Amino acid sequence: MREAPADAASLTADQEAVASAGLKGMIPMSGTGERARPFLDYVLSELADAGYRRAALIVAPEGDGPDPLRQYYLGEGRPARLTVDFVVQAEPLGTADAVWAASRWVGSRAFVVLNADNLYGVDTLRALRHADGPALPVYERDQLVRSSEIPPERVAAFALLTLGPDGTLEDIVEKPGQDAMEAAGPRALISMNCWRGDARLMEACRDVERSSRGEFELPMAVRLALRRGVVFRGLPALGPVLDLSRREDVSRVVSRLAGVEARP
Prior knowledge:
Blueprint: H1 13-20, H2 39-49, E1 54-59, H3 68-74, E2 83-88, H4 95-101, H5 103-106, E3 111-113, E4 118-119, H6 122-130, E5 135-140, H7 141-148, E6 159-163, E7 169-174, H8 178-184, E8 189-191, E9 195-197, H9 199-207, H10 218-227, E10 233-236, E11 242-243, H11 250-256
Parallel strand pairs: 1-2, 5-10
Antiparallel strand pairs: 3-9, 4-11, 5-8, 6-7, 6-8
Helix pairs in contact: 4-9, 4-10, 9-10
């Protein structure tokens, strides 16, 4: 998000400031004259619509200056429909490490983990909440691309899934590359890094080894949990999944959210 594309995306001054700070979830989604709702408000609103009542935001340690995210959610942006807590990840060591940082907050409960820069849809989040044990939403590649308006080449950086005949997860390959994704075909099964887990997934996040990119990654922790015998059920899901990964996504996501009321 901090990197401006070659054909510099058109952002407002407020959006530019937040993007430059790398605070994807705090990028304003409304236009001039409207209340500047950050993208994360829509994520939290969907969670509340799906019946969730508690959420933890994984954040970096507080620095010398004010933290816009904490300031907002402890002040004017404090949600009315769910309780938001802050969990500190001491260092940015990857998504599995971020989940493990929340282990004390989660305790012995089942939990759902999702990206703060993706909007998955209420039906998907509700299905995860009602799932009987570990689970994940499963998308078909071309339907996801069409409904979400995601550039097709970007899907190669998502995770490619293999499900068994009974609909349970057999394998996951993070960032398989364009050739592997094309070989899997238009109905290739995709993960958008949204999971329901329990203590066994949390333990795998604790124990997983670093990836080739030097991080502790959640898909690799899932593979470790699979090897340990944990069963993850694939829940068929439909897009769109609004993805706010890059600056060029901002105008598209703002347009898709026009007229949508965020009520976290």
